[in-house]
Amino acid sequence: MKLYKKIASLLAVAALAAVLMPVCMAAPGDSIETRLNHAFALRASTEFYEEVVTTSPDGTTQTMTAARSNGNAYIKMDMGEAGQLVYILKDGQGYLVDAASKLAVKGEVPTVTVSEEAVSGEAQAIPCTETTMNVNGQDCEALSYTLTGDDGQTSTVSYCLVGDDLKYVVTDAAEGRTIVEYRVTSTSVDQNLFIIPADYQIMTQEELAAQMGQ
């Protein structure tokens, strides 16, 4: 299903970021690199909750709420006029959840793979620059690196700290600037996020297709 591919792509972005960032983490002490390492270690913890807002170059925004705990996962995407997507992974079973119809559809569990090239030492050799930036009116310390795509186009990715918190990830590319803002991050997770409400109907994709006459 396309929705599951969308979820997998979101997870892959996070996985790739975790692969690329350690390249720059060489300085000791209270450096930007060290503090970013701590921020990414927090995001790698088994208990984690975050609320993230992504602003595209055209000004449109997309809000994601994500959590994981005890092997379970929760993702909610608010995509403006495109609607809302809720995905719950509970005890090894994935569900697409629709609050409007009180329906939870069982489906595949998205998997994330990162190519061997992406994790090789050669692929990770990305020079990084420490700098300062102002993002959304807020001053921050940043670690930036430039990537070149297969089409020859370059983009600069900046991981921006406010104090010890990773507050923004900014991508500057030919089409403009994309800002990912981490509005809430916590290692405290509400376990109710992983519960399918008792009054929701649970069915398989095949049962849903049969019900819709497909």
TrEMBL record:
Signal peptide as annotated in the record: 1-26
* Alphabetical keyword list: Signal
| Entry superkingdom | Bacteria
Protein name in UniProt: DUF4412 domain-containing protein
Native organism is Faecalibacterium butyricigenerans
